């Protein structure tokens, strides 16, 4: 489960800290107490920034770091594709071996494939991704000038 | 049944005891011996209990208190026999004071609902107060929050000291003439603290408040005498004391059980029923609506026999010795901070700790890879974590089959965890 990539992101997180955003959400994982506060900022339909603060296990914190690295700079449709692919991988109960196409989409996030075998830890890995999805929906809802693409 | 390990007097002969628990022989993660240190969550089950369950289903299975056929009579005798055993185990003055529920949570919810629907002098309403503590399991917090919300009663609580004990310095201000009920845990599930029952009960009795004791972490580990502690209600669960899941106990004083109204209605709890109204069976049946957990009660009876055979005093002495050893060894682990009492005095066999800034989930996962099962999280006692400013803890908890070698394995495991995340 603890791939080197995950430990690297845990020890040296990308984009940590709260910066200006269009929407902010606070998500908790009630079974273990992982928490994240996450903000999104959009520039048109480009993910301009995802900033976050949180506390929790290495899986939840590394996952937020990977999210930041992957999604910032992408357009909304691409970002959603990454989120949905990551969700599919995490819900695979360890049955899914990522193929090349999936690896192209997920990059560092494929390292979490092993986590999907541990039902108690899947929520840790998904915490920031669900927070991002929620924050994005709020940001788009509050900014009707932005086009909804999904 | 005690062994003579140097320096640790009072240990049980765990080599013999462990033979009764088949699961303790399991190997996990490619041949690692299971080190089961999650006993505060649930205990393992001895063969004697498993056999009682099997025999019940293979030979006697029937519904209770209804049929006139042989199996129905046998099942009833076994179910009611389990009540006798539990009554003796907690030194209840009467077997009719033992109500079977599905777990301690249901037992506590049952009391809260009896009091919410009760007439004077027991009735909890907007002019009265309910007292709990910051140390409670959620199952002894939420039922009282619900009762307070529904009746308008005020919910108050005792805070905690820095070393994991109840802060009773304001005992007389927290428990007042308005207090109708005081509910607290005998032993903390997260910190292991054993609470000073006498002091709280004395104050509660001064103001005629009912006393409810959550004995979920006490009944498995020490002599529990409901008369000695002078409570009005005592709740505990079967699965933490070698019994099956799905069976809990609420002991209550007979006169209260006679006076207080039923909560769940249904079969078995009635005397007569017409379309207009019903009258109720005497306690305990008044509080046992529907087909009860029969096999589970029989299993709990077997568990009580098993524990009594070893002796609750002997089990308490074993755990006290082991806890002292564990506290001492854990304090030598760098960056480890125990959340709760730092000695074995007035403390049960559950030890919570944090290890530097390594999250307990990571601690638990890496321990698991070494075959060591601990609990991580807030242990259904989130207010305790908030009190000490931590998101969660790692908890190791022992039982009658736990050994010093398992404490050593835990300490070595924690060293490995530190290096892994270091």
UniProtKB/TrEMBL annotation, chain B:
Record Pfam families: Aminotran_5 (PF00266)
Top class in the EC scheme: transferase
Protein family: Belongs to the class-V pyridoxal-phosphate-dependent aminotransferase family. Csd subfamily.
A GO term, aspect molecular function: cysteine desulfurase activity
Catalysed reactions, as listed in the record: (sulfur carrier)-H + L-cysteine = (sulfur carrier)-SH + L-alanine
EC number, as in UniProt: 2.8.1.7
Gene3D superfamilies the UniProt entry points to: Aspartate Aminotransferase, domain 1, Type I PLP-dependent aspartate aminotransferase-like (Major domain)
GO biological process: cysteine metabolic process
Keywords, comma-separated and alphabetical: Pyridoxal phosphate, Transferase
The UniProt record lists the keyword Transferase: yes
Cofactor(s) the protein requires to work: pyridoxal 5'-phosphate
Higher taxonomy: Bacteria, Bacillati, Actinomycetota, Actinomycetes, Kitasatosporales
Organism from which the protein derives: Streptomyces chumphonensis
Protein name: cysteine desulfurase
Record domain Aminotransferase class V: where: 35-410
């Amino acid at each position: 489960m603890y791939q080197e990539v995950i430990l690297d992101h845990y020890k040296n997180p990308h984009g940590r800290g709260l910066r200006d955003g269009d929407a902010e959400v606070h998500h908790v994982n009630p079974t273990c107490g992982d928490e994240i506060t996450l903000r999104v900022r959009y520039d048109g339909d480009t993910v301009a920034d995802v900033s976050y603060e949180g506390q929790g296990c290495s899986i939840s914190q590394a996952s937020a770091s990977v999210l930041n690295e992957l999604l910032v700079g992408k357009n909304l449709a691409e970002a959603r594709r990454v989120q949905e692919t990551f969700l599919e991988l995490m819900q695979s109960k360890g049955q899914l071996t990522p193929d090349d196409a999936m690896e192209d989409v997920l990059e560092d996030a494929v390292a979490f494939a092993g986590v999907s075998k541990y039902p108690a830890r899947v929520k840790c890995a998904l915490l920031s991704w669900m927070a991002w999805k929620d924050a994005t929906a709020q940001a788009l809802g509050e900014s009707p000038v932005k086009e909804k693409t999904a | 049944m005690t062994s003579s390990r140097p320096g640790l007097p009072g240990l049980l002969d765990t080599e013999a005891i462990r033979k009764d628990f088949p699961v303790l022989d399991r190997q996990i993660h490619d041949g690692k011996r299971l080190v089961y240190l999650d006993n505060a969550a649930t205990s393992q089950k001895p063969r004697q209990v498993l056999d009682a369950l099997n025999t019940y289903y293979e030979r006697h299975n029937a519904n209770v208190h209804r049929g006139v056929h042989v199996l129905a009579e046998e099942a009833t005798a076994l179910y009611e026999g389990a009540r006798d055993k539990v009554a003796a185990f907690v030194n209840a003055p009467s077997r009719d004071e033992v109500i079977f529920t599905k777990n301690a949570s249901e037992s506590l919810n049952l009391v809260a609902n009896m009091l919410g629907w009760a007439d004077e002098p027991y009735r909890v309403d907007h002019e009265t107060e309910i007292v709990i503590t910051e140390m409670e399991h959620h199952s002894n917090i939420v039922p009282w929050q619900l009762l307070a919300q529904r009746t308008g009663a005020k919910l108050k609580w005792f805070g905690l000291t820095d070393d994991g004990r109840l802060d009773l310095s304001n005992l007389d201000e927290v428990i007042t003439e308005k207090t109708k009920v005081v509910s607290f845990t005998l032993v903390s599930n997260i910190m292991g603290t054993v609470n000073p029952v006498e002091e709280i009960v004395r104050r509660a009795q001064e103001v005629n408040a009912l006393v409810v004791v959550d004995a979920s972490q006490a009944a498995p580990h020490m002599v529990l005498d409901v008369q000695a502690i002078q409570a009005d209600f005592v709740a505990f669960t079967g699965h933490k004391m070698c019994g099956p899941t799905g069976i809990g106990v609420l002991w209550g004083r007979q006169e209260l059980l006679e006076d207080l109204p039923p909560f769940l209605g249904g079969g078995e709890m009635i005397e007569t029923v017409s379309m207009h109204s019903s009258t109720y069976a005497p306690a305990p049946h008044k509080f046992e609506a529907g087909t009860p957990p029969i096999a589970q009660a029989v299993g709990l009876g077997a568990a009580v026999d098993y524990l009594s055979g070893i002796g609750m005093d002997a089990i308490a002495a074993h755990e006290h010795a082991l806890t002292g050893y564990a506290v001492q060894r854990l304090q030598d682990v760098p960056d480890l901070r125990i959340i709760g009492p730092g000695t074995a005095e007035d403390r049960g066999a559950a030890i919570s700790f944090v290890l530097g800034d390594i999250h307990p989930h990571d601690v638990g996962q890496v321990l698991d890879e070494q075959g060591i099962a601990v609990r991580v999280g807030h242990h259904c006692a989130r207010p305790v974590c908030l009190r000490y400013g931590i998101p969660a803890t790692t908890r190791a908890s022992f039982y009658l089959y736990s050994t010093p070698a398992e404490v050593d394995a835990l300490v070595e495991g924690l060293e490995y965890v530190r290096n892994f995340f270091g």
